[in-house]
Amino acid sequence: MKIFTIAILFFLSCANTLWSQNVLIYGSISQPTKQEIKLIIPNNDLLESEEQIVTDLVDGNEFYFQIPINHLQMLSLQYGIQSVYFYVEPDDKIKIDFESYNPAGTAKFSGNGASKNVFYQKFNQTFYGENERMYIPNDHFFYFVSFSTLNKANEQPDVISAMRTMEANRQEKLRFVENARSTNTISGTFYELMKKNVAYQNATNMLGFLRWNKDLFAQKIWTIPGNYFDFLNQTPLDESMLADNNYKYFIAALLDYRNDFAEGKTLNQKQQFYNNIGKNLAGKTKYYFQGKYLIKTLKNKEFDLFEINFADFSRENPYYEYTDALQEVYGYHARLSNGAVAPDFLASDTKGSMHNLQDYRGKVVYLSFWASWCQPCIENFKQTYHLKEELEREGVLFVNVSLDKENNTWETALRQYPIEGINLLANNKDEINRLYGFSTIPAYFLIDKNGKFRIIDNVRLDYAYDTVLRLTNE
Questions:
Q1: pTM for this one?
Q2: I want to staple 367 with a disulfide (CB 3.0 to 4.6 A). Which of 236, 371, 394, 445 is the partner?
Q3: CA-to-CA distance for 45 and 248, rounded, in angstroms?
Q4: Of 76, 111, 146, which residue is a domain's last?
Q5: Domains identified in the chain, total number
Q6: What angle do CA 18, 19, 22 make, to 5 degrees?
Q7: 455 and 355, same structural domain?
Q8: Digit-coded pLDDT (tens) for 258-270
Q9: What whole-number distance in Å separates Cα of residue 338 and Cα of residue 155?
Q10: What angle do CA 26, 83, 292 make, to 5 degrees?
Q11: Do residues 106 and 83 touch, judged by C-beta distance below 8 A?
């Protein structure tokens, strides 16, 4: 179950600057099931953070947002667990109406700026039906390819025929985009963006074809024609596209291919991949992907690999925001590593008394973050009830911190389910989430008698039982 940290932003008309113009996004929801809707504004940074503007529906089913925008970008409306994606440009006044049961599938656009979104809807319906995007897994960066296009290419008798199939798909998409521009359906700015998207989608398919048929090329059953990589002439590095997923998927596919065929591979394949980012990319794109890869090493707790490369990165990288982001992530992971002191926080019990984590020094603590609406949380409490009884006799404290918004909801769940231990309600949920960094619940942490983390990998009690028991004797 997902936890979202919500930043409620208020944009007033007086906040306008010379470089931004207000965009109005409004509309209605047919038969609404919830009274809250969010506007999601992605940030183009290493942390892939986002700003969320939250508002209640007006008159039962209408919503209004006004924000400053200084360039063409994609936003999304989130209603419940579903989203509608759309593009905005300065001065747009876009009306979006949709059915609550299927926002993306029923969205209707009107008003100033609607035409590009109507076009984008038709483009996706024409070329990207259900299950059309195929995920390509690898050890570094994931990307998606067009399933139907690659499937048709693989049906061809040879590589030249496969190339023609993929080129035909590119030409068909390009004609679709050019026709929209010739009829003034889309602006010149949006036309240029879509042309680039078509080129990067095609390039990703071409590289994905090589990955899909890697064994055939390795066994020399197929060979790569000399002109195969001509498509790269249409897809230069373009830092202005770093906010666009199609560009990032292309770069991921390019790095994946060049790493597979790199000469002089070392035993440390992860270091080799990092080196290949520097060799194959340039400018802001290079530093963005180097930064993303260094974040990946931190998430995998490969601190040595991070530290070896971060010094050179911070010295060479001219984009200070990337260095700052890496330092932030490094500090977070160092703070949440095994052996680090668990951050203290305040929470209240059912009587309103305040507790903090330091109160339990000298005891082994199994810390759970949960909520009454989280079904996996409740199921885990049920399944580990007998284990808790055994470990409590050994002196283990079970501290269960609820992230529920309302006391009544939390206390009802305590009466309804077997939630044994010290039960607390978080007083500052955003602060706890920042300190402990979990993006899903349930989240579990094992803390020793000295208040230090011993397990931070979200291990359920039934899997951590032996470790918990051993700590009671240390």
A1: 0.74
A2: 445
A3: 13
A4: 111
A5: 4
A6: 90
A7: yes
A8: 887 765 555 588 8
A9: 51
A10: 115
A11: no
- Give CB contacts under 8 A, 24+ apart, made by 390-394: 391/366, 391/461, 391/465, 391/468, 391/469, 391/472, 392/420, 392/421, 394/469, 394/472
- The residue whose two tokens read 């794109």 is 285
Question: Does 50 fall in a domain?
Answer: yes
Rounded-to-integer distance, Cα 10 and Cα 52, Å: 11
Buried b (16+ CB within 10 A) or exposed e, 336-353: beeeeebbebebeeeeee
- pLDDT reading at 310 higher than 50: yes
Structure tokens that stand for 345 in this block? 């926080």
Q: Which of 310-314, 327-331, 400-404, 448-452 has the lowest mean pLDDT?
A: 327-331
CATH code at position 69: 2.60.40
Which residue, among 261, 330, 321, has the nearest Cα to 295 in the 3D structure?
330
Distance in angstroms (rounded) separating the CA atoms of residues 424 and 190: 51
Q: Are residues 247 and 314 in the same domain?
A: no
**Are the beta carbons of 200 and 176 closer than 8 angstroms?**
no
